[in-house]
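User: Hey, quick favor. My workstation is busy. Could you predict this chain's structure for me?
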Amino acid sequence: MSRLVDILSENLDEGFQYFPSDQITDHPERFLVSEMVREKVLHLTREEIPHSVAVVVDSMKRDEETDKVHIRATIMVERDSQKGIIIGKGGAMLKKIGSMARRDIELMLGDKVFLETWVKVKKNWRDKKLDLADFGYNEKEY
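Assistant: No problem, here it is.
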């Protein structure tokens, strides 16, 4: 494999740089934040929650008093039973999801973050184009 990479590297011209060198993605921060929260949901709930979960960042702004980025995010599921699993006993699972996501978000933003999460049931959202668009999924992505 390394031989193939060497041969290709020797024979390919360097292409045009489309983005600044310090830019790691073309997605907005809100999208990355929602995906970090969603990743923690899927990681921590494993087999219990199928991939019928979306995260919507409702607001993201700096709180001048605390000098933290205040983020409100809603975790969308399709069934009441999924909501219960994500919240967990006494809110323990939701707290763990939020804590783990907050750490990753702080690393990405380079700022302290206050992450507020909510769980909402929206029946059959994956079957509705309008809901998919509202939750940040483009028609080309599904």
